[in-house]
Specification:
By secondary structure, the protein is mostly helical. It contains six helices and no strands.
C-alpha cells in the first residue's frame, strides 16, 4: 500500500508536466525533415494519440477506476513500439527539444502507470 501511495504521488507531480504546450513546431519540422510531408505518416496525429492514451489512463487512475484492458495493453508499448515508422527519429531527438521533452514526460508517466497496473 505504501509503494502504491508513493507511485501515486510521483504521478501527481508528473501530471503537471503533462500540461505543457503541445510541441507542434518541432513536429512540423520533423515531418518536413524526415517524411517530406508524406501523407502516409502523420506524426502530429500519432503523437497526439499517444499523449491521449497516457492522459486518459492517468484519468482512470486519478478517479480510482480500472484502466480498460485494451488500453492497459497499449501502455506496455512505448511510443516507438506503437509507431515503428518513427524509429529513425530516435537518434535525432536532441535536435527537437520540445518534442523530446514531451515524449520523455509522457514515457515516464506511462512507466509509472504500468507500475500501478502491475500492482493491481
Amino acid at each position: 500500500m505504501k509503494v502504491e501511495k508513493e507511485l501515486l504521488l510521483k504521478l501527481r507531480k508528473m501530471e503537471t508536466l503533462l500540461k505543457n504546450d503541445f510541441p507542434s513546431e518541432d513536429i512540423e519540422r520533423i515531418e518536413n525533415t524526415f517524411f517530406n510531408n508524406n501523407s502516409k505518416y502523420c506524426l502530429m496525429g500519432d503523437f497526439d494519440s499517444f499523449c491521449s492514451l497516457i492522459s486518459g489512463s492517468l484519468g482512470y487512475v486519478n478517479s480510482n477506476k480500472k484502466i480498460p484492458k485494451y488500453q492497459r495493453n497499449l501502455l506496455y508499448k512505448d511510443f516507438f513500439t506503437l509507431y515503428p515508422q518513427y524509429e529513425p527519429l530516435k537518434e535525432q531527438l536532441d535536435t527537437y527539444p520540445d518534442f523530446s521533452q514531451e515524449l520523455f514526460v509522457h514515457e515516464r508517466v506511462r512507466e509509472l502507470l504500468l507500475d500501478i497496473v502491475k500492482m493491481n
